[in-house]
Amino acid sequence: MHQINLDLSLEEISKIEGGAGLDLTIRNGQVEKLNFKITEYKRFYTQAIRGKAALAAPTLLARICGTCSNAHILAAIKAVENAFKITPSPQTLILRRLVVNGLIIRDHALHLYIFVLPDLFQKDSLLDFDDQDPRQHQLLHDAFAVKDAGNNLSILTGGRSVHAPYPTVGGFLKFPDPEKQKEIIAKLTAVRPAVLNLIDTFLKAPLNQTQHIPYLALRGENYSFLAGQIVSTDGINIPSEDYRGQLNRVDLPYSHASAYTYKKGFYMTGALARLNLNKASLNPQTQKDAAQALQKFPSDNLYHNNLAQAIEILNAIDDSIAILSSTSFNPEPPVKPAVISGTGFGVIEAPRGILYHRLTIEDNVVKDAEILVPTGQNQLNIENDLKILVNRKLQQHTGKKHSGSGRMDSPGVELKQELTHDMEVLIRAYDPCMSCASHFLKINWN
Amino acid sequence: MAKLTVGWFTFTCCEDSTIIFTELLNQHWQDWTKKIDFKYAKTLRRSVDLGPMDVAFVEGAISSVKQSQKLKQIRSLAKILVAIGSCAITGQPSAQRNEFNQTQKAEIKTILERFDYADKVQKLSDLVAVDHSVPGCPMDEQKFLSLINKLIHAPN
């Protein structure tokens, strides 16, 4: 039998959010060690937030991550409001839904067009797409138009797509300009065909790797990212504030970020989990126009995470058009706190999955915090999927060798290049966010 | 006119300015790709060995000797180095551990040692010469646009 021994170290994985690396050791044709390393240096937000004014916590905690910042703001606001017994107005809830929609469109589009599409076209960068090729030309132009629509929706409702200045504890500080509302409806409507094309592109993508694991997501009305209970494909149904108790933290000595298990095993959170659990509550127009793609769900194919993200962009567009077309927003003051001490939970769906903020507040001051981010939760599953991928590639490689169809004159170089490429593609399919994952420290060192 | 060779680098931060940069591409990509070669930008393409460049945009603060060495390498290869955003210019908020009390310091000590963190987080100008700065958290879009247009037309 052909025995492959190989050592591979990737110091800097490109086209992802933040810094990650990987160490792989293969001995006798099997993966002996595969460490997926989150290499972002910590900024210790859960320490730094202690002693800060609770009302300022969302603004500081947003700095955990630029790309997911508006998700962190909304989760932290929800946690403070929960502690302070604030019930936000119906208008506030609608505006927050629009802020999330802007984030989903902008963030998923960045990931799918800029990070993932080059893999499907064997290009290094979207900017290398051939402007003379009709399909590549269309996708290149679509990329920036779709991102722009999401960015403008975020600016309209949140004031900015990064570290939004309008959302605050109890409500909003500014409200959408009605004239701008019409402009945004037109922009969102204009990019719908592009998003349908994107869904079709990922529906036809050939990559497939399945793993039967639990999928966890928030479930609420209208495919909510902000309200509801935590559900899973293995039957859990709990209030979101009880979510942390379902997970066990795992210390990985090679990663700056903590990892988590659910029922002592791997699990996944994110777009694939949401689609697997909640597709029936998507916007009716999305369900109609993405019907063929939706037949793929529930799915155990990890690469369908990208198809799920493309469908979620369409859902965010359709939901936003429906809201903006039927809603007039009026200035209203933020709701005042009923109390100024307590423990509050803010659990929402960020673009990459379940985001959990727990804040303990005394006399308006944060005393303690715990924050769980999606990438930390998916970290072990990413690593396990990488092992499955590499072992599968090794079997294929050995098969080629035995059949004589593979080029084995320099198998080390060839195999390293192939594995490097395929592992990066798999990691990008998860859309991990390292800035989020390495924000904090909550480790018991032994 | 030769294209401006540009690198976009990120150290310890939340990468908010990288996101703003990718959103600015929505409006400017067609113009910029004619005038700028985004040669080193791991958000946009695979990382390659560093070489000479006209402009290095650097986001984030410096947390370790390894990061410090990389920054100095970038400085040696770039004609112009631009500090992007609050963490690069002031260190904050990424440098918040510099102000921790003894209890907080004790909590983070083990991880600082395990991953070779530097004693203090530093801003870029503590370590290298900075030619321009674009302040903000995230960076001020208009100031960035003004600077990049100036550099496109007069890179030196």
Architecture blueprint of SSEs:
The complex is a heterodimer of chains A (446) and B (156).
Chain A: E1 6-10, E2 20-27, E3 30-38, H1 45-48, H2 57-61, H3 69-83, H4 90-120, H5 134-158, E4 167-168, E5 171-172, H6 178-203, E6 215-219, E7 229-232, E8 237-239, E9 247-250, E10 259-262, E11 268-269, H7 271-278, H8 284-289, H9 291-294, H10 304-326, E12 342-350, E13 353-362, E14 365-372, H11 374-403, H12 411-430, H13 434-437
Parallel strand pairs in A: 6-11
Antiparallel strand pairs in A: 1-2, 2-3, 4-5, 6-7, 7-8, 9-10, 12-13, 13-14
Helix pairs in contact in A: 4-5, 4-10, 5-6, 6-10, 7-10, 11-12
Chain B: E1 4-10, H1 16-35, E2 36-41, E3 53-59, E4 62-64, H2 65-77, E5 78-84, H3 85-90, H4 102-114, E6 117-122, E7 132-134, H5 141-153
Parallel strand pairs in B: 1-2, 1-3, 3-5, 5-7
Antiparallel strand pairs in B: 4-6
Domain NADH:ubiquinone oxidoreductase-like 20kDa subunit (chain B): 23-150
Protein name (chain B): NADH ubiquinone oxidoreductase 20 kDa subunit
GO molecular function (chain B): iron-sulfur cluster binding; oxidoreductase activity
